[in-house]
Fold this sequence. Notes:
Layout: E1 4-13, H1 20-38, E2 42-50, H2 54-63, H3 67-84, E3 91-94, H4 98-113, E4 117-127, E5 132-134, E6 140-141, E7 147-148, E8 156-165, H5 171-180, E9 185-186, H6 188-199, E10 205-206, E11 208-209, E12 217-218, E13 221-226, H7 228-233, H8 235-238, E14 257-261, H9 265-279, E15 287-290, E16 293-295, H10 310-317, H11 319-328, E17 336-338, H12 340-369, H13 382-392, H14 394-403, H15 407-428, H16 430-436, H17 438-459, H18 464-473
Helix pairs in contact: 2-3, 4-9, 5-6, 10-11, 11-12, 12-15, 12-17, 13-15, 13-17, 14-15, 15-17, 16-17, 17-18
Bound molecules: ligand ME8.
Amino acid sequence: xxxxxxxxxxxxxxxxxxxxxxxxxxxxxxxxxxxxxxxxxxxxxxxxxxxxxxxxxxxxxxxxxxxxxxxxxxxxxxxxxxxxxxxxxxxxxxxxxxxxxxxxxxxxxxxxxxxxxxxxxxxxxxxxxxxxxxxxxxxxxxxxxxxxxxxxxxxxxxxxxxxxxxxxxxxxxxxxxxxxxxxxxxxxxxxxxxxxxxxxxxxxxxxxxxxxxxxxxxxxxxxxxxxxxxxxxxxxxxxxxxxxxxxxxxxxxxxxxxxxxxxxxxxxxxxxxxxxxxxxxxxxxxxxxxxxxxxxxxxxxxxxxxxxxxxxxxxxxxxxxxxxxxxxxxxxxxxxxxxxxxxxxxxxxxxxxxxxxxxxxxxxxxxxxxxxxxxxxxxxxxxxxxxxxxxxxxxxxxxxxxxxxxxxxxxxxxxxxxxxxxxxxxxxxxxxxxxxxxxxxxxxxxxxxxxxxxxxxxxxxxxxxxxxxxxxxxxxxxxxxxxxxxxxxxxxxxxxxxxxxxxxxxxxxxxx
Length: 512
Ligand code: ME8
């Protein structure tokens, strides 16, 4: 039976332009979606924009445009960033769309009908930047001695009528969820943090605001708009057609994976499952939090002027070099630093040298010495079998790594094989065999071509464009690019196209 795989990115706030941090989570989710498609799963991949709330309203005011018009522009920018990064989303949800508004209201009604919402008044701290309520005990001293949120965001005292969600009723069930399903939340650091936060005791959550208008009206009480996080989290269901149980996309629920940044783990691992429990809806299978990027050692911020638009990096280094770098540089889930030097080194050492040269050397030997024709697969020597044995297990090995969101480890598994191929080609020296044993030369080249096919197939999710070009050069047809297709050897005799370099070395332009 085909397995369904529903993966989501956060929906991004439209209060500012997209940057490399946003692109990062989307690239990781894209790699997961592409991997599962190639594994034969039925994939639904959702991304989009989070357009309501006070933060967006204020950004629109500052720009002197109406919130909807502002959101239209920034949302289009996020979509074009996703397209530029080759994010293969199946749908792009916007929270200002009527389908989302109706769905979020239906979810609210369901939760309210089940008795989990009541009207009261909120008095407490709110951090606009985080769109988050904080308890007095969570605040810390800021640089000027003033109280700030644990994230460093300024807080203000808010006092207004509000609907509340009975979050405290769900404390035990949430702890049970983390306990019984250790795979629900990762990585370990985020899991431990959330568990200890919940163990300290959950307060009921204010889920509506009356002091501004830019939000989804609370059903039955138009004085209130929904708290932006209730609205935003509902996107994962609204895109599927909730509450229409017969909507074909509802078959994708529960989500297989919500990929988020570590800053918003709390909302996804506490609030979201609690809302769903209250509504009687199945819980997502997994929430995984990626780490944080700094730029040349510094936090990215508008005031420092170091906000990196991923499209600028792509223009300079190429898309696949950027996609590769962000997932290769640090174990997925950990924090990392984006530096030009590290990006160039990864590109030159691992892409241009380890992989690009291997392909180029092999393919040019085939072009020169075999007339560009794919040699037959014949008897394998022990060395051949050992190398190909490492390739054959890659789909299984990577599936296990993907299951635990270990994207960097998955790349390392492939690179081990690439390094083994380089050792093999140096040891077998097919260029020398040309003079002594032409048949053995053809066998060695065939082994290398098969290994490269396996490597390129497994790397497609990470670097779709360059691996498509590599597979073209290896004579692999479109139908032969799935993981399952690797089980069938290509028939010899195919004419391969003329080899062309795939990963150029990056040379810093001369400073004048
Ligand atoms: O939080 N490093 O939207 P947002 C790594 N609308 N990832 C980063 C990053 C960085 N420096 N900066 C941003 C919101 N991200 C809500 C989400 S979901 C129902 C609602 C990524 O625009 C990371 O995934 O602030 C983070 O969680 C997300 O962008 C926050 O985007």
